[in-house]
């Protein structure tokens, strides 16, 4: 339940959160929840039992040994002092181990996601060696941490041995002087051993609780980040009915210290209109698209759909009305049917086929041995770049959007396929906002907006 809640919260964080972090680091932070869960369930139960036993054993030690109990407490205090003195270094090693393991994990996943580039650029050996160096660095830190734990175990054994020698020396004198019976001394020694073992376990648990602050900080990076601007869900029946879009004095910068990517964007798109946004690379077209899609929060200004501020509407409700085909769209593990239908439980077969036909991919799919049930992986193996893009478009159309955003969505298509897709989409009662460099795509729009420098022209 903890994991489900945190994962749901993670998915609702703004896109900017993920763009500024590595996947391995996010996965490592999420994994810290397992350590917290184990500590606060299994370990807590054991610590409570140890605590009850410790109190009982301490009482029996006091009854049988009297002042000898202070010797045991003194040696226990020495061990506690040693652990506290080395805590800062131990915590530093623990944090370093987590960070290095996350770094190696990120590099591993990055290499798999870019496996085509790795192979075509002849980078397999270099990537493999670099990952090995990261992994060795992580393992070495883990070894240092293990050595420190072994050292603590050895020190604890040494302190217990010194404790036992001192008790034997002083206790033997008390027995000889008839200040303590032999039976009482034997009983005290047995209880002392139990006390030392239980005390060591509780000390270890309490120090682990302090280490939990490290994992808590890492989880807090997820849990304490604000979710997207979410409002109560408004009942909405998807329908292809064109909506208008307007921006007023729109600006965006990555943070308060950075120069704005763009500013003073005043854009008005009528319902059913097709607008192409063009401009030189680096002018902020994709960033503008992400702001219009509600993926980025604007630094200044507002975005309206049918004269309703999307902040007041809520990103969750706004996303029900739109669909996006971005440059970095991904397929998910499953069938082509599931990917087009967004993994809905009761897909609309007729709508799915209509969307595939509009995207000029239906004939390709039915020519496959398993048709729409053809399984694809997260990397889209077996599909060309153009086929993937057409599935992305079909997936977007299946949502029956009122506004369709397309960022270089047909860049991998040949002219014939692109012309067919553009013509099919133009016939739909939806508003289109397109980012493109290809002239044929730009010319298919009703209006062209040039984005240059910091403002629109």
Automatic annotation (TrEMBL):
Coarse class of the protein's main subcellular location: membrane
Family annotation (SUPFAM superfamilies): ABC transporter transmembrane region, P-loop containing nucleoside triphosphate hydrolases
Family annotation (Pfam families): ABC_membrane, ABC_tran
Membrane protein topology class: Multi-pass membrane protein
Coiled-coil portions: none
Domain ABC transmembrane type-1: from-to ranges: 1-209
Record-linked CDD domains: ABC_6TM_CvaB_RaxB_like
UniProt-annotated location(s): Cell membrane
Residue ranges of domain ABC transporter in the record: 245-457
GO cellular component labels: plasma membrane
Gene3D superfamilies to which the protein is assigned, alphabetical: ABC transporter type 1, transmembrane domain, P-loop containing nucleotide triphosphate hydrolases
Keywords (A to Z) from UniProt: ATP-binding, Cell membrane, Membrane, Nucleotide-binding, Transmembrane, Transmembrane helix, Transport
Single GO MF annotation: ABC-type transporter activity
Bilayer-crossing regions: 39-64, 70-90, 166-191
Superkingdom in the source lineage: Bacteria
Annotated protein name in UniProt: Peptidase domain-containing ABC transporter
Biological source species: Morganella morganii
């Amino acid at each position: 339940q903890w994991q489900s809640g945190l994962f749901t919260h993670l998915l609702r964080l703004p896109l900017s959160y993920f763009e500024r972090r590595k996947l391995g680091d996010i996965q490592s932070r999420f994994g810290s929840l397992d350590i917290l869960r184990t500590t606060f369930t299994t370990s807590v139960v054991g610590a409570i039992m140890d605590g009850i036993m410790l109190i009982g054993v301490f009482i029996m030690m006091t009854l049988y040994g009297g002042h000898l109990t202070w010797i045991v407490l003194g040696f226990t205090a020495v061990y506690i002092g040693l652990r506290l003195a080395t805590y800062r270094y131990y915590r530093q090693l623990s944090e370093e181990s987590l960070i290095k393991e996350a770094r190696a994990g990120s590099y591993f996943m990055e290499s798999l996601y870019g496996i085509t580039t790795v192979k075509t650029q002849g980078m397999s050996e270099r990537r493999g060696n670099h990952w090995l160096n990261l992994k060795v660095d992580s393992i070495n830190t883990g070894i240092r941490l293990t050595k420190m734990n072994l050292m603590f175990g050895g020190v604890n054994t040494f302190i217990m041995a010194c404790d036992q020698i001192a008790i034997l020396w002083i206790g033997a004198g008390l027995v000889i002087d008839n200040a303590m019976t032999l039976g009482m001394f034997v009983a005290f020694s047995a209880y002392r051993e139990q006390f030392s073992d239980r005390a060591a376990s509780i000390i270890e648990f309490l120090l682990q609780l302090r280490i939990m602050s490290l994992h808590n900080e890492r989880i807090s990076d997820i849990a304490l980040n604000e979710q997207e601007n979410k409002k109560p869900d408004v009942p909405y029946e998807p329908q292809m009915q064109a909506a208008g879009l307007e921006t007023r004095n729109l600006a965006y910068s990555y943070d308060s210290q950075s120069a704005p990517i763009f500013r003073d964007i005043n854009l008005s798109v009528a319902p059913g209109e097709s607008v192409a946004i063009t401009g030189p690379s680096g002018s902020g077209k994709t960033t503008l698209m992400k702001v219009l899609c509600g993926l980025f929060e604007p630094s200044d200004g507002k975005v309206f759909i049918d004269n309703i501020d999307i902040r007041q509407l809520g990103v969750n409700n706004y996303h029900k009305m739109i669909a996006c085909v971005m440059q970095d769209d991904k397929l998910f593990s499953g069938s082509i049917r599931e990917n087009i239908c967004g993994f809905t439980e009761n897909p609309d077969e007729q709508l799915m086929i209509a969307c595939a036909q509009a995207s000029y991919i239906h004939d390709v799919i039915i020519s496959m041995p398993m048709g729409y049930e053809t399984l694809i992986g997260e990397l889209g193996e077996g599909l060309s770049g153009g086929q993937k893009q057409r599935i992305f478009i079909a997936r977007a159309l299946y949502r029956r959007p009122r506004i369709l955003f397309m960022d270089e969505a047909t860049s991998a298509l040949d002219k014939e396929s692109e012309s067919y897709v553009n013509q099919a989409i133009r016939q739909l009662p939806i508003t289109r906002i397109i980012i493109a460099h290809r002239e044929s795509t730009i010319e298919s729009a009703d209006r062209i907006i040039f984005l240059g420098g910091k403002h629109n022209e």
